[in-house]
Amino acid sequence: MIEGRQVRVGIVGVVIVALFCALFVRLWFLQVGSGNQVAAAVQTNSVRTVRIPAPRGEVVDVHGNVIVDNAVKTAITVRRNLDGKQRVDVLNRLSVVLGQPIPLLQKALDDPRVSPYSPVPVATDVPFDQLAYVKEHQADFPGVDAVALTVRRYHTWGNPSMPLAPQLIGYVGEINGNELKARKGQGYELGDTIGKSGIELSMESELRGTPGYDKLEVDNRGRVQRVVEHKDPIPGNNVYLTLDANLQGTAQAALGQAMQQDRALQDPTFKDRFVTFKAPGAAFVLLDARDGSIKAMASQPDFDPNIFVQKNGIDTPTWRWLNDPANFQPLTNRAVQGLYAPGSTFKPVTATAMLQSGFRTPQTPYNDTGSFKCCLNQPPFLNDHGTAYGTVNLPRALTVSSDAYFYTVGYQFWQWFHIGDPRGHMLQDVAKSYGFGSPTGINLADEARGRVPDSAWKIAFNVNTADPVQKAQNSVWNPGDDILMAVGQGDLLVSPLQLASAYQTLFNNGTRFVPRLVDHVTDYRGNVLRQIAPVRKDPIALPAGAHDAIVQGLMGVASDPKGTAYSAFQGFPLPLVPVAGKTGTAQVRGKSATSIFVAVTKPDAPDLVAASFVEEAGYGAAVSAPIVRHVLDAAYGLPSSPQVQINGAANTSQGN
Question: Is 306 exposed, middle or buried, given 0-12, 13-18 or 19+ CB atoms closer than 10 A?
Answer without folding.
Answer: middle
